[in-house]
Write a structure and sequence with these properties.
Elements (H helix, E strand, L loop, with lengths): L26 E8 L5 E5 L6 E6 L9 E4 L7 H5 L6 E2 L5 E5 L10 E10 L1 E3 L2 E2 L2 E6 L16 H13 L10 E3 L5 H19 L4
C-alpha cells in the first residue's frame, strides 16, 4: 500500500532536498557518494535519492579523497561557458572532492566543505568540473585556502584518478583534464552551477 504523503516528505532527496550550504559559493554542503579507497563507483539514484552501484572500477585507480556532489547544483550552459572547449554541461550536480585528515569511511553523509580550487574535466565534450575542498572544521587543513596550499602530489593523484577511472580495455578515452584552478574560479563554477540549477528546476525553499 503506498504511503500518503510519499516517503520523500520525511527523507529529503540529497540532490533537491538539501541546501547548497551555509555560505555558498565558499562554504558548501557535500553529499558523499564515494570514500577514499573504494573500488566500486557509487552514484546517487536520481529518482529515489539512494546510492546505487554504478560500476566496479576496472583498474586499480582509487579516489584519494571523499567524492560526491553539491546539492541543488546543475551543470548546464553557465558551467559550460566557463570551460574552454566544452560543448555543454554534463547534466549532473556539480562534483566535489573533499580532503579530510581523519578517515571518513562511509558514504551517504553530509559535511561542510570549504572550496579551495578545482580541476576542469572534459568528458566527451561535456564540462564535468571537479571542485576541490577541505573539511570545514578539520584542524589539520584549517590553514588551507588555495589549491596551491595542498601537497602537489595529492592534486596529481586526483588528476590521475579522474583521467583513469573510466578507462575500459580496448576503448579510447574520452576524458581530458586541464590545468587546476584556484579558489576564485572555483567559486565562479559553484555560482554558475547554482544558477543552472535554478534555471532548470526553479528556486526552491
Amino acid at each position: 500500500m503506498p504511503l500518503d504523503p510519499p516517503f520523500s516528505q520525511w527523507r529529503p532527496h540529497p540532490w533537491h532536498g538539501l541546501a547548497v550550504g551555509p555560505a555558498p559559493p565558499l562554504l558548501v554542503h557535500a553529499y558523499v557518494e564515494v570514500c577514499p579507497f573504494d573500488l566500486v563507483k557509487y552514484e546517487v539514484d536520481k529518482e529515489t535519492g539512494y546510492l546505487r552501484v554504478n560500476r566496479p572500477q576496472r583498474t586499480s585507480s582509487q579516489p584519494p579523497t571523499l567524492y560526491g556532489f553539491v546539492p541543488r547544483t546543475y551543470c548546464a550552459s553557465r558551467v559550460c561557458a566557463l570551460m574552454p572547449g566544452a560543448e555543454r554541461g554534463d547534466g549532473d550536480p556539480l562534483d566535489i572532492c573533499v580532503v579530510s585528515e581523519r578517515p571518513i569511511t562511509r558514504g551517504e553523509v553530509i559535511l561542510n566543505a570549504r572550496v579551495i580550487g578545482g580541476v576542469p574535466m572534459l568528458d566527451g565534450g561535456e564540462a564535468d568540473d571537479k571542485i576541490i575542498a577541505v573539511l570545514e572544521n578539520d584542524p589539520f587543513w584549517s590553514a588551507v585556502t588555495e589549491l596551491t596550499d595542498l601537497p602537489p602530489a595529492l592534486v596529481e593523484r586526483l588528476r590521475h584518478y579522474f583521467l583513469t577511472y573510466k578507462l575500459a580495455p580496448g576503448q579510447p578515452t574520452t576524458v581530458s583534464i586541464g590545468d587546476p584552478y584556484g579558489c576564485t574560479h572555483a567559486q565562479q563554477v559553484v555560482l554558475a552551477a547554482i544558477q543552472d540549477y535554478e534555471a532548470e528546476y526553479g528556486r526552491l525553499r
